[in-house]
Amino acid sequence: MKKTVLIVLATIAANYAVKAQTVSLFDGKSTNGWHSYLKSGPGAWRVVDGVLQLDPSAPGQGDLITDNEYENYDLKLEWKIAQGGNSGIIFGVHEDPSFEATYLTGIEMQILDDAKAEDNKLATHRAGALYDMKAPSSPAKPAGEWNKVEIKKLNGHLTFWLNGKKVVETQIGGPEWQDMLNKSKFKTWKGFAAYPKGHIALQDHGAEVSFRNITIKEL
């Protein structure tokens, strides 16, 4: 009996160790592990000098999403946006033809040139924000500079870091969340934030945007 219990505990520990390992989502050489939303292949996304980059002039525009789905995790990456640009990191994305865009189901951490982008009027739309719901407590670096991001999601508890500073924290489904949701444009969107497990997306919003050092640790 003791031997059986020890074997079970060892198996659980081994599985946890594998699950808790940090893995790279971008190898710096290819778009392996990613595809365009509702399509196959990377579309207008390219690898340039070890950086994952959207070419807004190339054919095949659309958001790039992970092949795999994730629920509880610690995601880290760096992003750089062109002057006047707009993009985002969207997660909890449910890939289904009934949803024509990633943002219809996914939650977004905003990427923006806060100084010159058109969508800079509201604090909840600026870089680092929980888009249209909660403003970041610290600003991003300007266009053309790299910003470090961390998104931690554990049992609905959501935390954003931007360049080492915690900028957003909330509980999905909690009282604060519900209040923010009711004041946002998402309040009548039935699919929004409805899928705890989903894909991670890099948004194509028509501007050149770059990503590097993309890693994830499942929790």
The SSE string, one letter per element, is HEEEEEEEEEEEHEE
Q: Rounded to an integer, what's the Rg over CA atoms?
A: 18 Å
Number of strands: 13
Task: For the record, give the distance between the C-alpha atoms at the N and C termini, rounded to a whole number.
Answer: 30 Å
Which sheet architecture does the biggest sheet show? 8 strands, antiparallel
Shape: globular
What is the CATH C-level name?
Answer: Mainly Beta
Helical content class:
10-25%
Q: How much of the residues is beta strand, in percent?
A: 25-35%
The CATH topology annotation reads as: Jelly Rolls
Question: What is the average of the pLDDT values?
Answer: 94
Q: At CATH's second level, what is the architecture?
A: Sandwich
Count of helical stretches: 2
Layout of strands and helices, then pairs:
Layout: H1 2-19, E1 22-24, E2 34-36, E3 45-48, E4 51-54, E5 64-66, E6 73-81, E7 86-93, E8 107-112, E9 147-154, E10 157-162, E11 165-171, H2 175-182, E12 199-202, E13 209-218
Antiparallel strand pairs: 1-13, 2-5, 3-4, 4-13, 5-12, 6-9, 6-13, 7-8, 7-12, 9-10, 10-11
